[in-house]
Amino acid sequence: MPVIRPIDRWFIDEVLPHERALLLKAQRLCGNCEDARDMVQDVFARMLATEGWAAITHPQAFMMRTLRNLAIERMRRSKIVDFRQIVDADHLGLADDAPDPQQIAEGREALEDFQQALDQLPERCRTVFVRRRIEEQAPRQIAAELNLSLSTLEKRLSRAIELITRALEPRRRSDYAEADEAGETAMAE
């Protein structure tokens, strides 16, 4: 018996039920059934290709926003655009995609975890990491100001990334385990 992956279960349970509504919106945006079906399939493909699919708390809103973006891309490429399509794209019912309290709390917790990992870095690695990745300074500028070769700077940056990744790994594993458990629970039901 084939095993259903968590992403497949999520897609069946959370995405496919909205297909009809998505198709109706797509028909309003592009004016014909065939193009609408193509747009819906493009939305589905993007949903399945989304790396953080487990974090999408409102799949319908995500799909509608993706549909709107696809419609705008098509209008930009088109030589002739019906004014009604532009109006429909602007007024496409989009849910508020502001984070909910749980997402805010999880984000703060993740930020605290990252700050702890950053604080535990050796001073030289932390300085290079902060200046390159957070302050987005140019490598040559950092190397010149710290009197380092580019090779040494790259090694310190690489080491910092490795140490931060190791420090955050237990959290990622638990997040993935929760997503897999949720998928397995849904499959059992």
Could you explain the architecture of this structure?
Residues 112-161 form the RNA polymerase sigma factor 70 region 4 type domain. Residues 18-78 form the RNA polymerase sigma-70 region domain. Keywords: DNA-binding, Plasmid, Sigma factor, Transcription, Transcription regulation. Belongs to the sigma-70 factor family. ECF subfamily. This is RNA polymerase sigma factor. The chain is mainly α and 189 residues long. The protein has two domains: 6-90, Rna Polymerase Sigma Factor, Chain: A, CATH 1.10.1740; 101-188, Orthogonal Bundle (Arc Repressor Mutant, subunit A). 76% of the residues lie in helices and 0% in strands. It is built from nine helices and no strands. Helix 2 (19-30) crosses helix 3, helix 6 packs antiparallel against helix 9 (150-188) and helix 8 packs across helix 9 (150-188). The longest helix is centred in the last third of the chain and has 39 residues, at 150-188. The chain is elongated and about 65 Å long. The model is unreliable at 185-189 (pLDDT under 50).
List key phrases describing it.
189 residues; mainly alpha; Rna Polymerase Sigma Factor, Chain: A; Arc Repressor Mutant, subunit A; 2 domains; disordered C terminus; DNA-binding; RNA_pol_sigma70_r2; WH-like_DNA-bd_sf
- Structurally, the number of domains stands at 2
CATH level-4 homologous superfamily of the largest domain:
Winged helix-like DNA-binding domain superfamily/Winged helix DNA-binding domain
The H-and-E topology, N to C, reads as HHHHHHHHH
Q: What is the CATH topology assignment of the largest domain?
A: Arc Repressor Mutant, subunit A
